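Quick start: what a row looks like.
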Amino acid sequence: MKRSHDAFYANEDKAAPVKDSFKMIARNIEGFFVDSGNGVTIGDIGCATGMLPGYLKSIFPNAEVIGFEYLDELLSVARADFPDLEFRKMDVTDEKSIPVHSLDVITMCGVLCIFDDAERIIQNMLQWARPGGRILIFNMFNPFDIDVFVKYRHSGDAETTELESGWNIVSQSSVSNILRRKGIENFSFTEFEISVDIEPRREDVLRSWTEKAETGNRFIVNALHLRQPFFLLEINV
């Protein structure tokens, strides 16, 4: 699977304000446990440079927060920027990457859309979560009953036959059916509303930016010309 875009995360602005998506995830975790997370293990899958685990640790100082990432270059940045946190290399498609029933809370932000087989990823996360735990997936989910699979290439790579992966938009209906097949009935989708304006980055036009609708609401797009319907999926295991 070709995915060159992820290397750009190594250059994230560490001084930027906390992302609205991170705040939404943290609010959902609040109240799930007491004593600021004492004795609780939170695992962030696909943590990139560790910004979400770092933020969650600041909110829940008594919790054990672990970042999981596949790319070595991103793990190196995460370990340098957050030396007090634990980061582990893992492959989200490999069910053996994390011990069974070892995480109380699992977060995943903008990762599910990379993979064509959403069911496999969700199944693995259900195995890693402890009974009574919670899984929070921040991702694009189509409110219409259509599963969208996206492949692309840069025009300078026109001679290659290998297309890049990412930005799939699986439907809420399909995800609901997956969860029910796994015996999960307690789940919900909450629509995400971004509160800030984001400008396009010409050096990386696949990085998302915002545009405003006639209503004044912001929607999220990038150079793929896809309007991105972000939701937070909460799964109670």
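That is the whole record. The radius of gyration is 17 Å. The chain has a mean pLDDT of 91.
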